Amino acid sequence: MDTGLNRCPLQEHFLPRKSSKENLDRFIPNRSAMDFDYAHYALMEGKKGKDQSAAVSSPSKEAYRKQLAETMNLNHTRILAFRNKPQAPVDLLPTHHSASLHQQPKSVKPRRYIPQTSERTLDAPDIVDDFYLNLLDWGSANVLAIALGHTVYLWDASTGSTSELVTVDEEKGPVTSINWAPDGRHVALGLNNSEVQLWDSASNRQLRTLKGGHQSRVGSLAWNNHILTTGGMDGLIINNDVRIRSPIVETYRGHTQEVCGLKWSGSGQQLASGGNDNVVHIWDRSVASSNSTTQWLHRLEEHTSAVKALAWCPFQANLLATGGGGGDRTIKFWNTHTGACLNSVDTGSQVCSLLWSKNERELLSSHGFTQNQLTLWKYPSMVKMAELTGHTSRVLYMAQSPDGCTVASAAGDETLRFWNVFGVPETVKKAAPKAVSEPFSHVNRIR
Q1: Which residues are registered as beta bridge partners of 134?
Q2: Is the bond leading into 370 cis (omega within 30 degrees of zero)?
Q3: Among residues 158, 153, 142, 236, which one has the least CA distance to residue 189?
C-alpha cells in the first residue's frame, strides 16, 4: 500500500475513537417505565375521586383505601420516569418467615470485559501479504519481531522502542519466516533463497547461516530447545541442532507441497506440521530417532484447503487445534494420541492463525474475507465470546505476549494491532527467572 508518504515502521497509528459518553446531556423520558393508563386516570378522574372521598370516607375507610392502593400498585408518584426503578415486592409474610424461604445466592464470577477495539495500532509498511508465510513472533524477553519486506524490526513492548535487526540482501530476501528461540535473545530468520540465518538480538550480530537443507524458500520455523525445525516450499521438514557443525539431524518427508505451519507441543515430544497439500502430520521424536527413514505418527487429511494455523492446547495434553484456508474455513480439534478428530467448527471464512489463552479455556482465531476479524471462542462449547474488528485485510499473523494477556495481529492492510483479549491473570506469579539453556552456548566453536 503506497500512500505516497514516507511511513516509518512501527510508529503509532492514531485513529479517532467514538466516546461512550456521547449525548449524556439529553434527558429523554423512558417510555417503558411509564403507566399511561394510570396517567389518564390521574388527570381525568383523580380530582373528582378526591372531592367525593373527602365527604363520605371515615378514617378507617381511608386507611383501608391507602393500604389497598399500595397492594394494587396504585400509589404512583411520578407519571414520567427517566429511568427504570425496581418495584419493592409486597411482603405478604412476616420478615422472619420470608427470610427462611430464600437461600443466599451463590457468588457468580463476573464476566470478563473484552475490549472490542485494538489498544494500539502501529504502521507495518511493506509487510508481505502471503498466507503461507510466518512473519511475526513475540519472544520471552517481551520483544516483538516482525519482518517487513527485506528488513526485520524489533519492538520492545516494555519500553515501546523500535530497532532494526537486519536488512537482508536483495538476492536472498525477502524474509519469509521468523521465530524466537526460547531464551528470548536469539532469533531465526527463514529466507526466500532457502537459507536460514541465526541472529543474536542483544548484540545485533549474525551467528551462522544454515544452508543446503532446502531447495526453496523457508516459510515456517519452530524451536524445540536447541533444535530448530524448518519447513520449506519443497515439502521438507528439517531438524537442525544449532550446536554442531553439521546441523541437520533429522528430515521429515510427508508433505507434497509447501510446509506453511510448524508447532512443537509443550512437552517437546510431538511436532505438528501443516501444508498447502491440505494435510496435517503429527511427528513423534521418539519414533523419529529410532528409524532411519522417518515416518509420521498420524496423517490427518480431513481439511479441504491449506493448513497454516496450528495451536497445541496448554491445559490438555495431546489436544491440537488446526485451521483451514479459504476453501475449508473450519477449525478442527484432534487427539494426537489416537489421531481422532474430536470436533469441527465452520467459521465461515479463511482461518489464518490460532492461539490458545494461557489463563482461560479459550481459543482465538484470525480470519480473512469477508470480515477480516479476530474471533474469541469458549472451549469446548465453541460459543463465540467476541469478534474483534478493525483490520481491513486478512489477518495473516498473530503472536501472544509472554504473560498471555495481549495478542498482536498483523494484516495485509499494513498495520500491526494489539488487543487485550485474554484478560489479566488472577494471580501474577513473580517467580525468579529460570535459567534457560543457551541454544548458542557453543557458537564460538562453529566455523
Answers
A1: 177
A2: yes
A3: 153
d(CA 405, CA 425): 8
- Beta strands 248-253 and 415-419: pairing type? unpaired
Q: Report the distance separating Cα 245 and Cα 241, nearest Å.
A: 9
Report how far apart the first and last C-alpha atoms of the chain are (Å, whole number): 42
Could you give the count of Cα atoms lying within 13 Å of 280 in the half-sphere of its Cβ? 31
C-alpha to C-alpha distance for 20 and 155, rounded to whole angstroms: 31
Place of cell 519414533: 287
Q: How crowded is residue 336: how many other Cβ atoms within 10 Å of its Cβ?
A: 22
Top-confidence residue, 69 or 304: 304
Please state, in angstroms and as integers, the Cα–Cα distance from residue 273 to each residue in 85, 254, 316, 382, 386, following that order: 58, 10, 19, 24, 28
Q: Note whether 374 and 365 are within 8 A (CB).
A: yes
Calculate ∠ Cα 103-104-106, nearest 5°. Answer: 120
**Burial (0-12, 13-18, 19+ Cβ within 10 Å), 137:** buried
Among 56-60, 202-206, 278-282, the minimum mean pLDDT is found in 56-60
Instruction: Report the alpha-carbon distance of residue 328 to residue 211 in Å, rounded.
Output: 34
Contact between 215 and 205 (Cβ < 8 Å): no
Q: Are 339 and 294 in contact (CB under 8 A)?
A: no
Over the stretch 73-117, which tens digit does the pLDDT of each residue have?
Answer: 554 444 444 445 455 555 444 444 444 445 545 566 678 899 999
Residue type (1 letter), 228: L
Partners of 415 in the beta sheet?
123
Closest among 273, 292, 293, 274 to 283, alpha carbons compared: 273
CA torsion sign for 90, 93, 96, 98 is negative
Q: Helix, strand, coil shares of the chain as percentages rounded to 5? A: 10, 35, 55
Q: How far is residue 316's CA from residue 337's CA, in Å, rounded to a whole number?
A: 12
Q: Return d(Cα 140, Cα 24) in angstroms, integer.
A: 44
Q: Under a CB-based contact definition with an 8 Å cutoff, are residues 10 and 146 in contact?
A: yes
Buried b / exposed e along 399-419 (16+ C-beta atoms within 10 A): bbbeebbbbbbbbbbbbbbbb
**Pick from 135, 137, 133, 146: nearest CA to 258:** 133
Q: Express each pLDDT in 332-361 by its tens digit.
A: 999 999 999 999 999 999 999 999 999 999
DSSP letter at 435?
Answer: -
How does DSSP assign 46-81, residue by residue?
A: HHHHHHHHHHH--HHHHHHHHHHHHHTT-----SS-
